[in-house]
Structure formats: structure tokens, C-alpha cells
Design brief:
The complex is a heterodimer. Chain A is about 35% helix and about 25% strand. By secondary structure, chain A is of the alpha/beta class. In chain A, helix 2 (about 20-30) crosses helix 10, helix 9 (about 195-210) crosses helix 10 and helix 13 (about 285-290) crosses helix 15. The radius of gyration of chain A is 24 Å and the shape is globular. Chain B has helices at about 5-20, 40-55, 60-65, 70-75. The chains are: A alpha/beta, B mainly alpha.
Chain lengths: ~575, ~80
């Protein structure tokens, strides 16, 4: 049988009680020639392995973990960049029956204090048996006095140099926990989201089907490849790329996130080189392509006509970004219908809703009277992106104060029920009780339903409450970016600070290219005026910093809470303003 | 203004200036990549890739790790061309 015919006749369905080990064995048996290629840091060379080789390596790694004394159920932190070491160790720990926990690897050079603190806190919170990290981690942690993580630190070469031991492979039940995903908690230490085997498989299957709806068949029937730069410690990378590829049996091309940030064009080039391909990214990724590829020379030779689906999720979908991307890359074969907005979160394993119509980004006006602070002016703010319909077997409801189910077009908290919903936070019954109510996942996200589809308006935890009015930070940020960057070239972050007895006031921090104090002062005045005009609020402060100074996650999301913390602590390097400013 | 540069070094300086978003003649040898020019790790990789492409050279990770100042980069490019 040729490879092609295997793919055209969809692989056998997984048994209803299948688990992640079954997914790996099935990929090895059904798609032995397909596989994953991982690029080096420069994005020039890649090392490819087939799913059969990946399964073999994962089994060997499981034996190594067993030899090191790792027992089923124990937690292993894996703080490595996208690499074969990461994949072998993660899959191996899972096959051993332990719970792998992927975490951002930290900077290559010089361990940042925040990274050491985070790993130490996680080691403590999860009672991690091992921390598999970069070569320098143990020494850095020991020097820093972060003792617990230093004691359990392990290097990839130590793991890989261990002779595999024989062990009785566990046979997990679908409801057993397979791994933990990390999600940022209110206290700063991430929480471990418990994902059962059942949820991991359900979400992978549902994604395969959802992406395929406009094409008339699941991706497993037609896709050749997926090209991604999303880190594997991010749910969109782990579930949305790795698991989906293992299930659907296409090739997966993985870039380091840092390579994409340095050379976004590489991602686009490869999307044109590997047959019928698809790729997900947060809004920020598409925006980065827009910002960095603007000259004719940057665009020359790009052919995006084989890019079937461009999923956009994991942060607010911004209509201007989508429109700008279509305009810029349309002449290079990109089809606007390829944009597939989706919505998900770690507690939902990954995807919750997915655009199933395949007609590109659709928006609706914000429901009348939704927030009094929103004026009709300002494109993008009054238009809310549709993020699609619930995935298979999943229900989404909009809930108001007191648990009241709201009607269509009323804004409330998004609640989710279905097989992909998580099993609680590791060793945190209080947070679990807050996040899970009678099997419903309370997402903390705000939105409304219309015509059976979800429209996301923001996140409750970031909400600014200004004189009794709720405002989402991105509403302010988008206005500011419209002033400074001609369509949002510069990133910004908005948050609120306490204002005595009066409640909160809004602060905006903007990354600026120009550092001339007079130019900045003029820009500040323009932003204040625009925000005042469109949102009816007065900004307490508009502060400019140099590009790259606003803290962001590895996937590029602005970390507003950290930004706020730096602002209040006076550790933000704020650029001086000229006389036109009021600072 | 840095004087007496080879062709490769001049090109290297232009690459740094473009990424730091500063005019070439404002750059000095003692300028530190991160502290003075805001070239954080994503930008540092961009710098590396741009230097390699523009000058058709390969810079090892070890050499790249030692490029802390503008002067370090210029020294690295001293034998090129």
C-alpha cells in the first residue's frame, strides 16, 4: 500500500477507551513514514524522525526514567526548548505512567532570577521528582540557593546516557491523569491543570474534525503537513500541534519560537513548501508577520497558496490584524477564508470552540448597552470576532451573576462542559472548586453567544473597573496602537492601579521606536485624547518604554500583571517626555 | 562614529544599527547590546542571522555568546572579507 493510499483511507478510529500510549503506537503503526522535523535555533537545518522512530525513542526514554527511579504518578518538570530531548523525555515520562509537566525553558544564557524562582516554586508546589532542564540549570539553581530544584535537577545527557530498565508498562484508564499543563494563577506561581487521557484524545480528535469541516473531511484525510513555531510547553503547541499530528498522521515541522521571532518569514516560507499545510498561531504571530515583512524584498518569492487553514486563537482575535494580514499576503496566495478563529484554554485541554464555516473572520457589533464606556467610534472595538461553535460533544453557556444562564447576545462568563474539560488543579482543591462547578468549567473569559457561535469580549481577570464601568485592557491598547503605529505596529499594555478611595485608574505603557521626548509627548497627548474620545476615560498615565521592554510570555502575550508590578515597583525604564506631556 | 573599519565591519555595524533602530554614527564600540541598544534575546538572534546572511559567514554559538558589545561584534568580523 502506498503512503498516499494509507492517508486517503482514514486511519482506524481509536477505541473508546484509548489512552495517549495508544495514540503513539497507532501513529507508529499507521503512519510509519510520516514524522516530525525539528529545526535548529537558526531555522536552517532540521532533524527529522518518523512516528515509528519517535515511538521507539519514547519507549527507550520510559525505560530510562524507570531506571532513574521515576515511579508512576510522580511529577517531572521538563524545562527544555523544542528539541528531540524534550519530546523523548516528555513522551517517555508519560509512557512510564508519570505526569510530565512542560515549562518554559528560560533564557539560554544566564539564568534569569524569575525563571529560577518559578521553577523552585513549581518544584515545591507539584512535589516534582525531577526537573529536566538546560545544562547550566543545576549550577545556577545551586548558586542561587534554590535548593529543592537544584537537588532534583537532571540534564538531558544524564537522562539519555542512562541504560533503559525493564519495567511493567502501566495500562492507564481513560480517566487517569496523563499530564499537567501549566496555567498562570493569580498568585504568580502557575497551577498544574490535570488532563486525563480521555480529554487529551478527545480534543485531538475534535480538532481534526473541526478543522476539516469546511473541507468536507477531517485533516487526516487531506493534510500533508503542519508548520509551527509554538512552544511545546504551550497548550496550542502540545495539543494543537503535537497530538493533532500524532492523531491525524501528517508531517509536523517545528521551529523554535525564538527563530520565528527573529525571522517570521521562515514560518511562511515553509508553509509554502510542504504540500497542503495548515498552522495555528496567536493573533500576535500574524501581527508580527505584518510588522516585520513590509518591504517588497521581504515578500518576494512567498507562495502561500497551499496554506489551507490559519487558525488564530489563544488570545483576542483582532480584526485589524486579520484584515492587514489578508491584504499584505493576499497577493502571495493567502486566502482570507483560510483564517479560522478559535478559542480555548489549558483547562479545556485546548480547543473549546472553532470556526466551522471557513469563510474567514466574521464579526458582530458589540451588543447594545453592553458597556456604557464603549462609544461607537473606533473600528475594532465595537466589532467582536466570532470564535466559532463548540467542538464535538461540548456545550458552551454564558452565565451571569449568581449562575444565571443568559440569553443570546448578553455578555457574561463563558462556561464549558464536555469530555475535554480538565479534572482539576493539582493539589489545589480551592482553585478547583472555583474553576469547576458541577462539571462546568468556569473559564473566567467574557463573551456572548449569537446564532450558536461564541463571540469573545475579554477576560474577567484582566478587567479594569473604572468608575463602575468594566473595560478590557485591549480596548485601551488597541486605541493606543492605532495612534502610535499606523495599525498597531507597537505593542502596549494597559492595567489599572488603586486610586485611593475612588477605586481604580488606568495606566497605559507603550513601546516606542522614536525616543525624542517631544515626539513622545505629542503621541501621549494624542493617545489620551483618542482614549478619552472613544472610551470616555481619562488615563492616569501614559508611559513609554523602549521596544521589547514590555514583559511578554514566550508565545508573545503581554503579561499585564507583571507589567503593572514593574510599573508600581519603579523598575520599568520609562522614557522621558517633552513639554507637551503632562507627566 | 567608529573609524577605520573594514568593509565587513561596516556592513556589520549597519546590521546592528538597523536592529537597534539607531543611526550608524551614534553607535560606539563600548555600547552594550542589551543595556545600551535594547538588543534582547530575540533581537540578538535576528542580529546573528542577519550578520550571517549579509556577510555569508557562520558564527558559532560560542562566538555569539561572547558578543556583548558593539566592539565584540566588530572584533568577530575583523578577519572577514
Amino acid at each position: 500500500m502506498t503512503e498516499r493510499s494509507v492517508r486517503r483511507h482514514a486511519a482506524p478510529e481509536l477505541a473508546p477507551d484509548a489512552t495517549l500510549p495508544d495514540l503513539i503506537e497507532r501513529a507508529a503503526a499507521q503512519f510509519p513514514e510520516r514524522g516530525i522535523a525539528i529545526f535548529d535555533g537558526r531555522g536552517r537545518r532540521s532533524e527529522r524522525r518518523t512516528y515509528r522512530e519517535i515511538a521507539d525513542a519514547a519507549r527507550r526514554s520510559a525505560g530510562r526514567w524507570a531506571a532513574l527511579g521515576l515511579e508512576p504518578g510522580e511529577r517531572v518538570l521538563i524545562a527544555l526548548p523544542t528539541s528531540w530531548s524534550f519530546l523523548d523525555a516528555w513522551l517517555g515520562a508519560m509512557l512510564r505512567g508519570a505526569l510530565p509537566v512542560a515549562v518554559a525553558p528560560g533564557a539560554a544564557m544566564g539564568a534569569a532570577q524569575a525563571h529560577l524562582d518559578k521553577i523552585e516554586a513549581l518544584t515545591e508546589r507539584l512535589g516534582a521528582r525531577f526537573v529536566l532542564a538546560r545544562d547550566s540549570f543545576r549550577a545556577d539553581a545551586a548558586a542561587d540557593g534554590t535548593r529543592r530544584s537544584a537537588e532534583v535537577a537532571l540534564r538531558a545527557d544524564e537522562l539519555e546516557g542512562t541504560a533503559p530498565a525493564q519495567f511493567a508498562a502501566p495500562t492507564p484508564a481513560p480517566d487517569d491523569i496523563a499530564f499537567l499543563q501549566l496555567t498562570s494563577g493569580s498568585t504568580g506561581v502557575p497551577r498544574g491543570v490535570m488532563i486525563p487521557h480521555r480529554a487529551a484524545l478527545h480534543n485531538s480528535l475534535a480538532n481534526d474534525r473541526a478543522i476539516g469541516v469546511p473541507h468536507g473531511a477531517p485533516t487526516s484525510a487531506w493534510a500533508d503537513s503542519m508548520v509551527s513555531w509554538l512552544p511545546l510547553h504551550h497548550d496550542m503547541g502540545l495539543i494543537g500541534c503535537l497530538f493533532l499530528s500524532l492523531y491525524a498522521g501528517h508531517d509536523l515541522w517545528l521551529f523554535q519560537p525564538s527563530t520565528f521571532l527573529a525571522r517570521p518569514r521562515l514560518w511562511l516560507e515553509h508553509l509554502g513548501h510542504h504540500g497542503r499545510a495548515f498552522a495555528p498561531a496567536p493573533n500576535f504571530g500574524y501581527q508580527l508577520c505584518l510588522e516585520r515583512l513590509d518591504a517588497q524584498a521581504d515578500l518576494e518569492g512567498l507562495d502561500l497558496s497551499s496554506w489551507s487553514d490559519a487558525m488564530t486563537g489563544a488570545e483576542m482575535v483582532r480584526p485589524e490584524t486579520v484584515a492587514g494580514f489578508c491584504e499584505r499576503f493576499g497577493p502571495h496566495g493567502f486566502r482570507p477564508e483560510a483564517f479560522r478563529p478559535c478559542y480555548g484554554l489549558a483547562e479545556g485541554t485546548l480547543a473549546v470552540t472553532f470556526d466551522l464555516r471557513g469563510r474567514g473572520l466574521r464579526t458582530r457589533p458589540l451588543p447594545a448597552g453592553a458597556t456604557a464606556t464603549l462609544g461607537s467610534e473606533g473600528f475594532g472595538l465595537s466589532e467582536v470576532a466570532c470564535v466559532g461553535e463548540p467542538i464535538d460533544d461540548t456545550t458552551v453557556e454564558i452565565v451571569g451573576p449568581g449562575g444565571r444562564r443568559l440569553d443570546d447576545s448578553a455578555i457574561g462568563e463563558v462556561w464549558v462542559r464536555g469530555p475535554s474539560v480538565f479534572a482539576g488543579y493539582w493539589n489545589d482543591p480551592e482553585a478547583t472548586a472555583e474553576g469547576l462547578e458541577d462539571g462546568w468549567l468556569r473559564t473566567g473569559d467574557l463573551g456572548f453567544l449569537a446564532g450558536g457561535e461564541l463571540y469573545l469580549t475579554g477576560r474577567t481577570k484582566d478587567v479594569l473597573i473604572l468608575r463602575g464601568h468594566n473595560l478590557m485592557p485591549h480596548e485601551i491598547e488597541w486605541q493606543a496602537e492605532a495612534v502610535t503605529g499606523g495599525g498597531g505596529a507597537q505593542r502596549s499594555g494597559a492595567f489599572s492601579i488603586a486610586r485611593g478611595a475612588d477605586g481604580e485608574e488606568a495606566v497605559l505603557v507603550v513601546e516606542a521606536v522614536d525616543r525624542d521626548p517631544e515626539t513622545l509627548a505629542t503621541m501621549a497627548a494624542e493617545i489620551r485624547s483618542r482614549v478619552g474620545r472613544t472610551l470616555s476615560i481619562t488615563l492616569a498615565d501614559v508611559a513609554f518604554v523602549r521596544r521589547g521592554r514590555i514583559p511578554k510570555t514566550t508565545s508573545g502575550k503581554v503579561q499585564r500583571r507583571q507589567l503593572r508590578h514593574q510599573y508600581l515597583a519603579g523598575t520599568l525604564d520609562i522614557l522621558p517626555l517633552g513639554r507637551a506631556g503632562e507627566r | 562614529m567608529i573609524e577605520g573599519l573594514s568593509e565587513a565591519q561596516t556592513a556589520g555595524l549597519e546590521v546592528i544599527a538597523a536592529i537597534a533602530e539607531r543611526p550608524v554614527d551614534e553607535l560606539e564600540r563600548r555600547h552594550e547590546m542589551v543595556a545600551d541598544l535594547g538588543i534582547d534575546s530575540p533581537k540578538a538572534l535576528r542580529l546573528l542571522l542577519d550578520l550571517e546572511d549579509r556577510l555569508d559567514i557562520e558564527i558559532s554559538d560560542e562566538a555569539a555568546a561572547r558578543m556583548d558589545t558593539v566592539g565584540d561584534v566588530l572584533d568577530q568580523l575583523a578577519g572577514v572579507g
